[in-house]
Amino acid sequence: MASITFREVEGSSLKYWLLFGGLGLFVLFGALAWNHMHHYGHVVTGMDNQIVWGLPHVFAVFLIVAASGALNVASIASVFNKPMYKPLAPLSAILSLALMLGGLLVLVLDLGRSDRLIVAMTHFNFKSMFTWNVFLYSGFFGLVGVYLWTMLDRNVKTYSKAAGTAAFIWRLVLTTGTGSLFGFLIARELYGTAMLAPMFIIMSFAYGLAIYLMVLAAAYAWTGRTLGDAVMMRLKTLLVVFVAAVLYFVVVHHMTNLYFTKYHAVEAFILRDGGMFTTLFWVGQIVIGCVAPLVILLSGLGKQRMWIMIACALVVLGGVAQMYVTIIGAQAYPLDMFPGLIEKSSFFDGEVHSYTPSVPELFLGLGGVAIALLVTVFAIKVLRLLPASLDDATVAKLEH
Amino acid sequence: MNELKPMSEDVPASHERRRFIGAAAATAAGLAIAPGVILVEVAHGRSEDQAASSAVRWGMLVDATKCATGCNDCVTACSTENGWTPVGESAHPKQAPQWIRKLELQDPLTQMETNLPMMCQHCAEPPCVDVCPTGASFKRADGIVLVNRHTCIGCRYCMMACPYKARSLVHESLNDTQKADVPRGIGCVESCTFCVQKVDRGDGNTACAEACTAAGHNALLFGDMNDPESEISRRLRELPTKQVRADLNLNLGVRYHGI
Description:
The complex is a heterodimer. Chain A is an all-alpha fold. Chain A has helices at about 15-40, 55-70, 70-80, 90-110, 115-120, 130-150, 160-185, 195-225, 230-260, 265-275, 275-300, 305-330, 360-380, 390-400; strands at about 5, 340-345, 385. Chain A contains 14 helices and three strands. Chain B has one domain: Alpha-Beta Plaits, CATH 3.30.70. Chain B contains eight helices and nine strands. Strand 2 of chain A pairs antiparallel with strand 2 of chain B.
């Protein structure tokens, strides 16, 4: 098998520092947003006692789900022994760590008492899915960190497959845990199903790969390195499979609910009467997130790199819309304490709850995205994560 | 500020507590001769270093047929006793905590209307306690579900999990209406405590039930559901009652008649 040369990105150009500075600015905005929310309390957000998890959770859960998915490229290389994916693996690992960091930061900085993070690290209730996730996330950093080390240090290279397999299994459990944050909730109609765990796993495959493809293409285009069509086409095909699988799971989830009379009202809310949530579901999650990317990638357009990038961006946008509908849409629909009766109270029982995200929430979420990208941009400068070239000839040699 | 002590059964027993438990065990032997005596004993007020006892299960009977339309006395009494601002006076009604609210129900077919107060149902199997990552949400041995103000991190997972919308997050700094024996704070989640401060003082009643009785409605009855001789136990034996979302099988501390 031919060997691949990995090289740091020089990162001395104006363009690099502009990117670095721009991302840094958004991290700063995120920090200021957190400071504002922490100082005044959640009263300055659009969240209330009806919509208790808002836009920060949308960003946080999306980033955490995408993080585990971004590791897939590395997993395919070492767990499933596909040599073509080997040179793509280090970026996959660092991107997954960076996205996880961004997501977790948003999650913990949105706590009502984010200053009490140490309490969450020292007091555990093992019946809580959140507690399990604390361990799953910490373990993810540890395992993927070791995995990355085995990729970068020749002395420990022999352990790469073992570390990669461990990280792969761990990430599947982790996304099961993320899906189960909602799957284990009995109170709300759209949650409380085992369906959410595998659905979140397949969503992670799609979102993570879409982000990976965009970061890979941008890194190679902006550093003037060659990225051949072979790599792009292979990853594109994989994305088609993942996006189609997401669509399948979403259809099965809603079809199952539609069969049960007790879920008719909540399904009607999401699918037909929910205003913005219905729009986000059909236009955002289904058309932008699934149908349009599939049409692009499966048609002749999918042969052009620009259109592949557009498809990836659509998958990401659709993913954010999906998280918005899953997290906020489910809360907007009122709790049905007395099935069949009309409920009314000073506490907004029986009403569809509205939610308008505030500026600090948006910037806290964007800060998480920015920190994930900033870490990646910095890591490719200081570590040998990217192959010097991924032209078709080099990649073809790997397969033989 | 006083601290709400998580008085679950696994709290290490103090010397006095051990003595108390020993005495209670000895008395329990005589239970066959004098039924109910021990239960009446532990239902009284107790000193701070005595743990709550699982011999008691505090509960409430809500008679919706007696709950008056337009009457809000239970809500007002709760707000006064526990120091939370009534929603009408709040600048941010959607973010204002409400420990108890009057729920108006109507059957769209028959037009029948029902009134009832809704608050924490003090489940025997509380979903909020299950999901709380730090264990801040806890159930006392005597069945009262509480939030430990000092270990709540404000993640709101309990609010997502509660089927009764019983919990509120304190969204902003609190004003000076706070009560010394009802610890609250910005960024933490809170809900009905069955007036735990009154229960521990030995009042044997909640502010809402007292207010309902004072108004002459008698729709709320608080007491020890484990004591077969208590008024609430007698009434629960006689009246047909329901648990809200009984399908979830959470074994609620609040039982409703007339729904």
